[in-house]
Write a structure and sequence with these properties.
Strand content: 5-15%
Radius of gyration: 30 Å
Largest sheet: 5 strands, parallel
Number of helices: 27
Strand order of the largest sheet: 6-7-8-5-9
């Protein structure tokens, strides 16, 4: 029988499975001896607590906890990966399938000698492993990783010479790697083996693929990858519905209303494209998802959502993103054209006449977006980015600024509870101020208070007032305000980082180009450009334009000081000590001693 806490197997069943020919007279004792040996083996590989978590004793039975067994973990990861693939989330699918396959070390149960039940389970797991390998290579092909697929599949084809899916994937990967002759040779070898050993022909799918490769091989290379409307199965359309859940505690503002208006007053001749930009943690994704959920009825043919990973060290490749969206549009992965331009043409053609809403979240820059936009006026796009995206024409581009005090307090009420906030309204406002009215910081602060019922808002405000530990206080589990600034810092040049660290060490706001040149011994144009880059990266804020005056906001200043303490050189530290004196000496300085605006 199965229970919610694990799998319970009776002693009688274990005895019959372990000794199918002749069950011992004292079956309970015999099973107990075997279980003791298994537990001893587990103890040699892990701690005793883990052993009891894996296998515990029940009256007349033993309980096996699936969560602690690698075979069950493998099956869960495989199922999750296939679900993500079916939804079109190829990056997530590839990661889950890779994790599932990484649990394998050799063949199943090779060190176990037992009856038919073990052999049957070994065969079942081996088949699931082959399925996982097929699914993983299918996803990798869709993401454009043809070379990796070739290197992975060649030994598998040799080991499983009659596994036709492996052969089909290898043929596709070789062809897309400009190795069509090898792809055709793979088919010829498979066909020969099937005829000799089974007297059979390859499946119709493989024969169609072979015919397609022959036709493409006969075409001119300049037109072989051209996409035509006949490639898209219009009747096979399945409306994608990929939007994440709306945030229950969403606090509406003027920005969300303005973006919504863009879509309700849309031009019937052009694609409506709205960009929501702002610093990390400003709530861009929250606003975009909320708006997309509100606009569902206006886009009945589906909603696509893609995390472009612009804040990550390696943003998503446009070709992989297009493959992901095309898969979600129910286009068979084997039909995807080769190359970025061809996939972009596929994508636009697939959306022709469709009313589909795209949410392209966390774009790195304009170059990443260039091939991801539809061309039909029926569809709409919402883009979020920490970059300013001034180099692209948008129907609307809106900068998401900090929350107002009223919005920030409202958000805290949603997270912590209205009664608790109203009891300490002044302290709650101070917490909001120390969080710089940044939604991400406010959510973390609220979550910490909600988890600490014995804390008051005053307690948290006191803890946040200590600048040295500010970022530690605004961290909860895997969430940290550091992630709002780390991606922007990572993209700076070394000179720009030096300037940022120096300001963090100095304890003042920022310098003019002239004065900081004296400190850093950098040419004036270079330093002016570094200041501009810090502003573009939202690590500095322009507060006046005549003359230019800058301010480093509280959370950014705390991050600057933290990275400076870890990475600053002795030269930078000496320069930072001189900077406050230059502030008093130079009229062109405009430095704010306040960490919080």
């Amino acid at each position: 029988m199965l229970t919610h806490a694990g799998r319970v197997v009776s002693v009688d069943h274990l005895a019959e499975a372990a000794w199918p020919a002749q069950v011992p007279v004292n079956r309970a004792n015999a099973v107990h001896v075997r279980v003791s040996r298994i537990r001893s083996l587990f103890r040699s590989m892990s701690d005793p607590g883990t052993v009891m978590a894996v296998m515990s004793t029940e009256p007349g039975a033993y309980r096996l906890c699936p969560d602690e067994v690698d075979a069950d973990q493998f099956e869960k990861l495989l199922a999750a990966g296939m679900r993500e693939r079916d939804k079109g989330f190829l990056d997530k699918a590839a990661d889950l399938l890779e994790r599932a396959l990484s649990l394998w070390e050799g063949e199943a149960f090779t060190d176990v000698t037992a009856g038919d039940c073990v052999a049957a389970e070994a065969d079942r797991l081996t088949e699931l492993r082959l399925v996982a390998l097929e699914q993983h290579t299918d996803v990798m092909l869709a993401m454009g990783a043809h070379t990796q697929v070739v290197s992975r599949l060649k030994p598998l084809v040799a080991r499983y010479p009659l596994r036709e899916t492996f052969h089909g994937h290898l043929m596709t990967a070789l062809h897309r790697s400009s190795r069509s002759a090898e792809a055709l040779a793979v088919y010829a070898e498979l066909r020969s083996k099937l005829a000799d050993e089974l007297g059979a022909e390859p499946t119709s799918e493989l024969r169609d693929l072979h015919r397609s490769l022959l036709e493409r091989d006969a075409q001119d290379s300049g037109t072989a990858n051209a996409w035509t409307s006949t490639n898209v199965s219009r009747s096979g359309w399945v409306s994608p519905s990929q939007l994440p859940a709306d945030t229950p505690d969403f606090v509406p503002g003027e920005v969300s209303k303005a973006v919504a208006h863009v879509f309700t007053a849309r031009d019937p001749t052009t694609t409506t494209v709205a960009a929501i930009t702002g610093q990390g943690g400003a709530g861009k994704t929250t606003v975009a998802v909320h708006l997309a959920q509100q606009l569902r009825s206006s886009f009945p043919d589906g909603q696509l959502y893609v995390d472009l990973g612009g804040s990550a060290e390696h943003p998503a490749e446009p070709e992989a993103v297009l493959a992901q969206m095309l898969s979600a549009m129910n286009l068979p992965l084997s039909e995807l054209s080769e190359g970025l331009t061809a996939k972009a043409a596929c994508f636009r053609d697939g959306l022709k006449g469709r009313r589909v809403l795209l949410v392209l979240d966390d774009a790195a820059d304009e170059a990443q977006l260039q091939h991801l936009l539809p061309g039909n006026p029926e569809s709409g796009v919402i883009i979020t980015s920490s970059a300013r995206l001034t180099g692209m024409p948008f129907t609307s581009r809106i900068e998401l600024n900090d929350m107002s005090q009223h919005q920030a307090v409202t958000l805290l009420k949603h997270v912590v509870g209205a009664a608790r906030v109203d009891q300490e309204l002044a302290a709650a406002r101070e917490v909001a101020r120390l969080c710089c009215y940044l939604p991400f910081a406010l959510r973390i602060a609220g979550a910490r208070l909600a988890a600490k019922s014995h804390w008051t808002f005053g307690d948290l405000a006191s803890r946040l007032s200590h600048q040295r530990w500010l970022l530690d206080e605004l961290t909860r589990d895997s969430l940290s305000v550091r992630s709002c600034f780390a991606p922007a810092y990572r993209r700076l040049t070394e000179d720009e980082r030096r300037l940022f660290r120096m300001i963090g060490l100095s304890g003042v706001g920022v310098s003019s180009a002239f004065s900081a040149t004296a400190v850093l011994d950098l040419p004036v144009p270079d330093h002016a450009e570094a200041l501009e880059r810090l502003v573009d990266s939202r690590l500095l804020k322009v507060v006046d334009r005549g003359p230019l005056m800058f301010r480093m906001l509280g959370l950014a200043a705390a991050f600057a000081r933290e990275v400076a303490e870890a990475d600053a050189s002795d030269t930078e530290r000496e320069a930072a000590q001189r900077l406050p004196r230059l502030q008093d000496q130079q009229a062109v300085f405009c430095l704010s001693t306040s960490w919080v605006h």
